[in-house]
């Protein structure tokens, strides 16, 4: 058995995150370990952010992102803020360049403790999402759920923030939809060969949105950073809002999204530490650090 690795249970606006310190070791967090940690109420999480030694000069760490079902994700905005806060608390460093499977990611902790993550450039081509068939205009694709002549949700915008997103626009309260019922059907719809994160968005002004997300591989979450970015850019490119918006997520918190003139999407918000422990990356067996016990 490999030795135990330190971890911190954190959250980004209620998005449940485990930051796993895998620096200085060659093993990986296994899908079995992820599934075991997700099944335990104390360590229940939406994503594990596994911090590994850097692979590329100019980056501080390689980060692997694992969903609660044991599958991998290419992006996790809320988790990235948690990684920044954990590393900043350890080293005092404020500006970071990470590498993920989707590329290079820059992030910065501000004086007030909030953290901005440059989530990169959104992609809108149907092959980039990816979709299973050609759609020239991904601002609204043909996809609906509910009765054929009276769909409950229809014509989502789709976007890639490194990971696939579909955003369904609604006029009324985002809470009036059974996302726990529609989410799994849409996540696994054949139009999305790599599945997709499914969101419902209500535009409340030129600068504000309400958003709920069913996450691929994790289900309903209290916040999803990359979905917030995908919703913000989709709202702007469909003329619903300007390029800077504040998005209210299910936890009641807000994320600020700025789709900059250079096409990069910058997400700003908080991160919160809950407790620390150590775990076995092969099995998910874990213990809480003693100083955390009241
Ligand atoms: N919670 C994450 C997104 C996780 C996306 C993941 N569920 C996927 O498979 O793409 C965030 O804050 O961006």
Automatic annotation (TrEMBL):
Signal peptide range in chain numbering: none
Cell location: Cytoplasm
Catalytic activity: (2S,6S)-2,6-diaminopimelate = meso-2,6-diaminopimelate
GO molecular function: diaminopimelate epimerase activity
Active-site annotation: 76, 224
Main subcellular localisation: cytoplasm
Residue sites binding substrate per the record: 15, 47, 67, 77-78, 163, 197, 215-216, 225-226
Keywords for this protein: Amino-acid biosynthesis, Cytoplasm, Isomerase, Lysine biosynthesis
Site residues, Could be important to modulate the pK values of the two catalytic cysteine residues: 165, 215
Pathway: Amino-acid biosynthesis; L-lysine biosynthesis via DAP pathway; DL-2,6-diaminopimelate from LL-2,6-diaminopimelate: step 1/1
Family statement drawn from the similarity comment of this UniProt entry: Belongs to the diaminopimelate epimerase family.
Quaternary assembly: Homodimer.
Full protein name: Diaminopimelate epimerase
Species annotation: Aminobacter aganoensis
Source taxonomy: Bacteria, Pseudomonadati, Pseudomonadota, Alphaproteobacteria, Hyphomicrobiales
Chain's gene name: dapF
């Amino acid at each position: 058995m490999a030795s135990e690795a330190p971890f911190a249970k954190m959250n980004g606006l209620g998005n449940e995150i485990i930051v796993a310190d895998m620096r200085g070791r060659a093993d990986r967090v296994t899908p079995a370990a992820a599934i075991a940690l997700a099944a335990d109420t104390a360590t229940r999480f939406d994503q594990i952010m596994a911090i590994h030694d850097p692979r590329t000069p100019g980056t501080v760490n390689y980060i692997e992102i694992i969903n609660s079902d044991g599958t991998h994700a290419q992006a996790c905005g809320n988790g990235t803020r948690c990684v920044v806060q954990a590393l900043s608390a350890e080293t005092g460093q404020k500006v970071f360049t990470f590498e993920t499977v989707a590329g290079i990611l820059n992030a910065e902790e501000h004086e007030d403790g909030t953290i901005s993550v440059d989530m990169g450039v959104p992609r809108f081509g149907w092959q980039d999402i990816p979709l299973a068939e050609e759609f020239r205009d991904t601002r609204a694709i043909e996809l609906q759920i509910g009765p054929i002549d009276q769909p409950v949700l229809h014509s989502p915008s789709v976007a890639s923030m490194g990971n696939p997103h579909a955003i369904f626009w609604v006029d009324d309260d985002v809470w009036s939809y059974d996302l726990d019922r529609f989410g799994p059907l849409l996540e696994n719809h054949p139009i999305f060969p790599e599945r997709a994160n499914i969101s419902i968005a209500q535009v409340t002004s030129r600068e504000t949105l309400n958003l709920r997300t069913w996450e691929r591989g994790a289900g309903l979450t209290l916040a999803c950073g990359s979905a917030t970015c995908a919703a913000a850019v989709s709202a702007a490119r469909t003329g619903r809002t300007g390029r800077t918006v504040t998005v209210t997520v299910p936890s009641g918190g807000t994320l600020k999204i700025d789709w900059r003139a250079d096409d990069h999407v910058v997400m700003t918000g908080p991160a919160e530490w809950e407790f620390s422990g150590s775990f076995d990356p092969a099995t998910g067996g874990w213990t809480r650090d003693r100083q955390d016990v009241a």
